[in-house]
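Milestone 3.1: sequence recovery, worked example.
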């Protein structure tokens, strides 16, 4: 492994993260909270470390898949460690493990929390908490590639390591331009949501910004104890429903629309599957819970909000779906596994993988019935390469392996099976709320230190598609 190149790139990442950590200082000064030190110390420390690492330029800057995975894994762990320090220094979350859990949840866009009284937190801390969602939504490596001029040709390996989905695609020929275009789309959508929430609802500007950060990153951290329900506004909920859906869509499709390649955008199999699953779940849940509502429109709104919240893995809540019928709760758990689209800010297994698994199953059945038949798996009219199918299958095996081991470890807490299983399912799929103790009205505070560390592993592994975190534990990774 090219250690010098790895540390050099990590140095650049440290500088970027450190600079971003200084932004909440302006919020602290505006609200006269005197929490400058809480953000200045870890931010400047990261910048200083980054400058030291960048000063020693490697002779060979060659970075390939292994180096890309290592850089990705280490950078996300390190930024979660330093991102936890503002919580500890400000004494809002005194225990480091709890602060680390909250930060991993933020950067991985999970939205699980150990906090019980969110509204008691200072504004700058709440801003940082939601801002971690926005940073983690598109990824810190993608952000670095987008903003640093003359990025090296190895940037593709960094994008592959961080961008969720079976394949990291380029919307234009140069990977730096691809990252820049996708980030511009991300920023524009975020600004549009801030504008709409602030202008057309009763939200304060601060709430509009933090809510939009959480929606864009599909994270779900709110500044109110009752999440979005606390705003008591049907219009606010419908606006957020629309943007949760939009941020769960493959961002490449937005680029195709901008350049008027409408056929590429609207003939996308994943998009229509995403729409079909979404609408089907809303319809079934609305019918199932309708008897509990005086008006069918209220049932439809709650179903639409929570289906989009779970499927996009945002995790906002407007109702305690833990009290819904078993049928509706089962649909919610299924949506946790499916997740959003590839190249979106959402988590889960991704809709494309689910499509591939069904296509592969259909091909195997066809092959069993007609052994001499030539079967090819296609997506959007293109034949899927065998290495992509093999990669998806490997992902599935590793995914369920981690899931089962995590459930076994979490079971040591002695909680009921529903709480134990859904807490892990929620964390590894970056959803946030589960059922039972970790339901929409609960939190993760009552779990042991070991369990919280397991959850942190699951959240980061789920966000980074497992392998960038797993490779850090393989001895062969560090051989030259």
């Amino acid at each position: 492994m090219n250690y010098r190149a790895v540390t050099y790139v990590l140095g650049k990442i440290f500088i970027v993260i450190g600079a971003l950590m200084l932004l909440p200082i302006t919020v602290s000064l505006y609200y006269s909270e005197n929490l400058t030190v809480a953000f200045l110390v870890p931010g400047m420390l990261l910048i200083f470390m980054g400058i030291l690492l960048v000063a020693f330029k490697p002779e060979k800057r060659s970075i390939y898949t292994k180096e890309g995975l290592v850089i990705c894994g280490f950078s996300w762990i390190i930024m979660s460690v330093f991102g936890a320090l503002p919580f500890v220094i400000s004494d809002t979350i005194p225990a480091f493990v709890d602060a680390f859990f909250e930060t991993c949840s933020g950067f991985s866009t999970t939205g699980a929390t150990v906090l019980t009284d969110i509204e008691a937190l200072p504004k700058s801390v709440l801003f940082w908490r939601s801002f971690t969602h926005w940073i983690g939504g598109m990824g810190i490596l993608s952000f670095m590639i987008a903003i640093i001029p003359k990025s090296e040709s190895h940037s593709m390996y960094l994008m592959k390591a961080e961008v969720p989905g079976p394949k990291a695609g380029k919307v234009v020929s140069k990977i730096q331009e691809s990252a820049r275009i996708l980030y511009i789309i991300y920023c524009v959508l975020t600004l549009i949501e801030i504008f709409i929430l602030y202008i057309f609802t009763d939200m304060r500007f601060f709430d509009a910004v933090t809510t939009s950060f959480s929606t864009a990153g599909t994270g779900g951290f709110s500044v109110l104890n009752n999440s979005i329900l606390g705003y008591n506004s049907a219009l606010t909920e419908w606006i957020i429903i629309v943007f949760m859906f939009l941020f769960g869509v493959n961002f490449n499709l937005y680029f195709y629309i901008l350049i008027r390649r409408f056929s590429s955008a609207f003939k996308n199999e994943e998009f229509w599957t995403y729409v079909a699953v979404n609408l089907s779940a809303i319809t079934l849940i609305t019918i199932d819970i309708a008897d509990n509502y005086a008006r069918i429109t209220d049932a439809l709104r709650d179903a639409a909000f929570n289906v989009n919240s779970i499927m996009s893995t945002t995790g906002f809540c407007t109702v305690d779906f833990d009290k819904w019928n078993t049928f509706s709760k089962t649909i919610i758990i299924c949506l946790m596994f499916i997740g959003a689209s590839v190249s979106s800010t959402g988590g889960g297994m991704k809709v494309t993988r689910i499509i591939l698994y069904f296509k592969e199953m259909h091909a195997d059945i066809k092959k069993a019935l007609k052994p001499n038949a030539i079967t090819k798996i296609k997506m959007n009219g293109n034949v899927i390469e065998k290495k992509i199918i093999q990669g998806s299958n490997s992902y599935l095996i590793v995914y369920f392996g981690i899931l089962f081991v995590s459930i076994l470890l979490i079971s040591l807490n002695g909680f009921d099976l529903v709480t134990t299983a859904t807490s892990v399912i929620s964390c590894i799929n970056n959803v946030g709320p589960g059922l039972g103790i970790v339901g929409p009205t609960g939190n993760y505070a009552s779990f042991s230190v070991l369990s919280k560390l397991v959850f942190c592993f699951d959240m980061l592994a789920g966000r980074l598609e497992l392998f960038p975190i797993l490779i850090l534990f393989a001895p062969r990774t560090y051989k030259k």
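Residues 175-200 form the longest helix (26 residues). The beta strands are 378-379, 382-383.
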